[in-house]
Design a protein that fits this description.
alpha/beta, Rossmann fold, six-stranded mixed β-sheet, 34% helix, 26% strand, binds adenosine-5'-triphosphate, binds magnesium ion
Length: 250
């Protein structure tokens, strides 16, 4: 079971002068097992902070996070995380970056097989032996996506993973992501600035308002998959959400 549930999650960080900055204030939402949720919000509102808390990289100041019905504490569950920046190890080849999280659990052959499979999937076949600095920014980001997928996690947290890609590559990656999600039944939480991307991908859009952040609106996107670019129904939902989003953040 890989549901995610946040109840009244707040997070306060110290400012450089030591005074507290309330970033999250009572963030609550449910992402059922196998669901696809998008978190949409303006820059600096706390989206990456929410993902870091779910991943167990940091603890909330108050409130509770449950993953698979259990409180998040101690050993982190099996979660794949795509950070906002690629965070590859510069001294390791691309394939070794992808298989790094697998070194304890898989033999050499299995690791090579997974590196090949997931690098292929993100369109980086032929780049396994490159070092990260020899790739473009978007290619590095795709390598980071391959690394997150290679552990074959039940939960995938993605922080604006396609924002550095050209639109055609981003479209292809979104379609691939939907295919993987439908084939594997992962629970996915996807952070984005793009309303169109949120509507294309997700079953629910969680709109975050800021200072401090909370979920201001949950919109269910009731359209069948796979979705088509240019679908008028999708465009209509996007236009409605854009209006609400502007009213919320303006
Ligand atoms: N470790 C930290 N220490 C202090 N402040 C932090 C820390 N991490 C985040 N913050 C603050 O929390 C707020 C939210 O940051 P966060 O990175 O979650 O925003 P975001 O919604 O992901 O923004 P963007 O869309 O630009 O990526 C910002 O004001 C940031 O300065
Ligand atoms: Mg962020």
């Amino acid at each position: 079971m890989s549901s995610i549930s946040l109840t009244g999650v707040s997070k306060t960080f110290p400012r450089p002068d030591g005074t507290p900055l309330d970033v999250l204030d009572g963030v609550s939402f449910d992402a059922p097992d196998g669901s696809f949720s998008a978190i949409l919000g303006p820059s600096g509102c706390g989206k990456s902070t929410i993902l870091a808390l779910i991943a167990g990289l940091d603890q909330p100041t108050s409130g509770s996070i449950r993953v698979g019905g259990r409180p998040l504490s101690g050993a982190a569950p099996r979660i794949g995380l795509v950070f906002q920046r690629p965070r590859l190890l510069q001294w390791r080849r691309v394939s070794e970056n992808v298989t790094l999280p697998l070194e304890r659990e898989c033999g050499r052959e299995e690791r090579q097989d997974r590196a090949r499979r997931y690098l292929d999937l993100v369109g980086l076949d032929g780049y396994a032996d490159y070092y990260p600095a020899q790739l473009s920014g978007g290619m590095q980001q795709r390598a980071a996506i391959a690394r997150a997928l290679a552990i074959e996690p039940d939960i995938l947290l993605m922080d604006e993973p396609f924002s550095g890609l050209d639109e055609m590559t981003a479209r292809k990656m979104r379609q691939e992501l939907i295919r993987i999600w439908r084939e594997t039944g992962k629970t996915i939480v996807f952070v984005t600035h793009s309303i169109g991307e949120a509507v294309f991908l997700s079953e629910q859009v969680l709109m975050i308002g800021h200072k401090p952040a909370a979920v201001r609106k949950r919109a269910a996107i009731d359209l069948d998959y796979p979705r088509e670019y240019g679908d008028p129904a999708m465009f209509e939902i996007e236009t409605g959400l854009t209006r609400e989003f502007l009213a919320m953040t303006g």
